[in-house]
Every structure is written in C-alpha cells, then in structure tokens.
Specification:
The protein is an alpha/beta fold and about 270 residues long. The chain has nine helices and seven strands. Helix 4 packs parallel to helix 6. The structure holds nicotinamide-adenine-dinucleotide.
Length: about 270
C-alpha cells in the first residue's frame, strides 16, 4: 500500500524512544524526512544513526516541551533547515513516577511536573508547530493520548488526567484547523513495553510490601490477560502503524478522532 508519505517532512516529538522511535523508523521506511525533537541529550546522534541505517533524512534537535522557549528554539531550528513541515506526531510524555492509588497517596504538588510536561508540553508544541505546517489542504497532526485518559487510571491520576486533556485539546485543534485542511487525531495506546510503561510498574512495585512485589513481566502479563479482550500487549509497531496511517492521505477524511490501539480494552461507539 502506497501511503504517499515519500518526501513529506514530519516532526516527531519524543521520537528518540519507544513509540516515537518506532514511528520515526516507519516514516523513514516510507521515505519521509523526519525531524526529531526530544529532551534526550543524544537526540542528534540518535537521529543521525537512524538516517544512516535507513539511508534517509533524519535530524534531531534537543528540546524540552515543558519550556515554551525551548520549543520555540526547536521551531526556529526546524524552519532554518526545512522551511516548513507537512505533519507532526507528538509522543513526548512522562508518568508522575509515583503510585497514585488512592489519589491521596499523592500531594497536589506531585501533579505539577505532569501538568507542565504532558499538558503544557502539548500546548507549546501546538503553538510552535502549527505555523510551521505548510497549508496545502493536506497536513496531519497526531497526538498520543492513552486509554488512561478515557477510563481514569487509578495508578497514576495526574498522568491519567493529563491524557484526558490531551484528547480534548486535540479535538479543539481539529475543529480550528479543519478549514486549512489540517487533520488532527489522537491515538490511544493500551499497554506497550517502553520506559514510560515500565516506570508505572516501578512506582507500583516501590509501594508494595516485599512479599507482594512482582516482576514487570508478571505484573503486566497478568493485567493484560485479565482486562484486554485480545489478551496481549501492544507493540510499539502496532501504535506506529496507526499513527503513520492517520498521517497518510488514506485517512484523508478522518479528523477529530480518538483511535484506541489497545486490543479492545476500551470499547466505545
Ligand atoms: N507505553 C505505554 O504503554 C503507553 C500507553 C498509553 C499511552 N502512551 C503514550 O505514548 C506516548 C509515548 O510514550 P512511550 O511509551 O513511547 O514513552 P517513552 O518513555 O519510551 O518515550 C517518551 C519520549 O518522550 C521524551 N520526552 C520525555 N519528556 C520530554 C520533554 N519534557 N521534552 C521532550 N521530550 C520528552 C523522552 O525522552 C522519550 O524519548 C506518550 O504520550 C504516552 O503517554 C504510552
């Protein structure tokens, strides 16, 4: 299937790890040009390694989405290199790092880092990236939400609430940008083995008495087989496939949608 993404310029925020990295690799396979924005200090070298491996075009700019100034700098850096972009994928997010069940285990100030990175990060990225998108009735934005944003995950309320905000703000953007032909959608992964997912287990594990601690694999395997109809983990490629499809003209009439790639965990109509 030709996804007609060859030559398209795509910013992948959080593209140095997990789902963002898998998306970057898939976009490079499709012969798109990828610009990674990520907080990791090795972002530039990750990008040049990916460019070498794929024989494609990939560059990286270190950027902290929590800081408006840092995101604006990444925007200026991008404009200097490629002038405009066609698409944006925003994958950067963090968990609170604390076990939040019940919610009173956390203090209100435990929320602030999450709000700044996960919500304000999306706001900063939208404000900087949208003006970079070439208006040719074509561009696409994909934001990463989470099933946690739909069902209120008790393990990490700040993360869960931020993900609900991400879904909602993406719908506002979808309505605002539709007249320019820019489509905006959200992909909600279920459970994917990445550093972020592992950090949720770590926070749970740290809060358990010694005899109740379980390995990451046991904890997650049990959870997935109990609550997910397809009874398996999602992979980073499962999520990247949906993201890349949504960017492509094959999804040309899809905007404002929240698509779950979660093995049927959350079903809605
Ligand atoms: N892994 C899962 O099970 C799962 C489930 C539901 C939703 N998600 C969502 O998928 C997205 C990607 O998560 P992942 O699991 O691939 O995580 P990950 O930790 O593997 O990747 C996140 C990337 O974001 C970057 N990042 C973090 N803070 C940043 C900041 N302040 N500025 C810029 N970059 C920053 C990290 O360096 C990393 O490269 C997130 O939005 C997450 O909420 C993941």
């Amino acid at each position: 299937m030709d996804l007609k993404l060859a030559g398209m310029k795509v910013i992948v925020v959080g593209g140095a790890s997990g789902i963002g990295l898998a998306t970057t690799k898939l976009l490079l396979e499709e012969k798109a040009t990828v610009i990674i924005w990520d907080i990791r200090p090795d972002t530039e070298s990750i990008a040049s390694q990916l460019a070498g491996e794929s024989n494609g075009e990939c560059s990286g700019c270190q950027c902290d989405v929590a800081s408006e100034e840092s995101v604006q700098r990444a925007g200026a850096w991008t404009r200097e290199r490629v002038e405009y972009v066609d698409h944006l994928v925003h994958c950067a997010a963090v968990g609170s790092g604390k076990f939040g069940f019940p919610f009173s285990n956390l203090q209100p100030q435990d929320w602030l880092k999450n709000l700044q990175i996960n919500i304000m990060g999306m706001v900063h990225v939208a404000h900087t990236a949208v003006p970079l998108i070439r208006k040719h009735q074509y561009g696409g934005l994909v934001f990463l939400g989470s099933v946690a944003g739909q069902i209120g995950s008790q393990t990490d309320p700040p993360y869960s609430a931020c993900k609900a905000a991400n879904i909602n703000f993406a719908q506002c953007l979808a309505k605002d940008l539709a007249p320019d032909g820019i489509r905006v959608n959200t992909v909600n992964p279920g459970m994917v083995q990445t550093p972020l997912n592992r950090s949720v287990w770590q926070a749970w594990c740290d809060a358990q008495p010694e005899e109740q601690k379980r390995s990451y694999e046991e904890w997650a395997g049990e959870k997935v087989s109990r609550v997910v109809p397809l009874a398996r983990w999602q992979t980073v490629d499962d999520i990247a496939n949906m993201i890349v499809f949504l960017l492509s003209p094959r999804a040309g009439n899809v905007t404002g949608q929240t698509i779950n790639v979660d093995g049927g965990f959350v079903m809605h109509w």
